[in-house]
Design a protein that fits this description.
- The protein is mainly beta.
- The protein has one domain.
- The protein has two helices and eleven strands.
- The strands form three sheets. It has a five-stranded antiparallel sheet with strand order 3-4-5-6-7. Strands 8-9-10-11 form a four-stranded antiparallel sheet, with no helix packed on it.
- The longest helix has 20 residues.
- The chain is globular.
- The relative contact order is 0.14.
- About 5% of the residues have low confidence.
């Protein structure tokens, strides 16, 4: 009797583990995940895709501000960290309250269906990200419009495709 019970428990545990391994990240989880922002040099918890921190002095003047937004249209899924689970690559838009809008790419690891920030890169100020893709080899392809040497900050004109891969836990551009 104990032998059959032991086998049953082993099969049940293995089945539960394999089901947990197949849990997927979805947009709702990503919209409410915790991210490290390079621009703000801090960790933020998004709520429904955004985060805002505002600090004012005793006279009501704004002295510290950080806004972070997830671009829901620029989410790519694929195994980026090589563990067999489907991870996410997202674009975050960050602002410190001025005219700049700083874009970052963030890699989100799938930890049994829970999003965990893995690494990221600052892409630039007031650029345009056309698309994000995860390729079969786990690399990330970004199609962007960036600033040329004579472009004003408002209006980037140079199309650039960059390919990134995780090396040593960091997102590195591939030459």
């Amino acid at each position: 009797m104990v032998g059959r019970l032991g086998i049953f428990l082993l099969i049940f545990c293995l089945s539960s583990f394999s089901q947990q391994k197949n849990l997927k990240l979805d947009v709702q989880l990503l919209k409410n995940a915790t991210y490290y922002t390079i621009f703000g040099d801090t960790t933020v918890k998004l709520k429904n895709g955004s985060f805002v921190f505002e600090k004012r002095d005793e006279e009501g003047f704004l002295v510290n501000y950080l806004s972070v937004k997830l671009d829901e249209e620029k989410i790519a899924m694929g195994d980026v960290d090589g563990d067999g689970d489907i991870d996410a690559v997202v674009i975050l838009m960050c602002s410190g309250g001025g005219s700049g809008n700083f874009y970052e790419v963030a890699v989100i690891s799938n930890e049994n269906g829970k999003p965990r920030y893995l690494t990221g890169k600052l892409l630039g100020d007031r650029i345009k990200v056309n698309s994000v893709k995860v390729l079969r080899d786990g690399s990330i392809l970004l199609d962007m419009v960036v600033h040329g040497p004579d472009d004003p900050q408002c209006c980037p004109t140079v199309r650039e495709v960059q390919r990134y891969k995780i090396f040593g836990g960091k997102l590195q551009i591939m030459e």
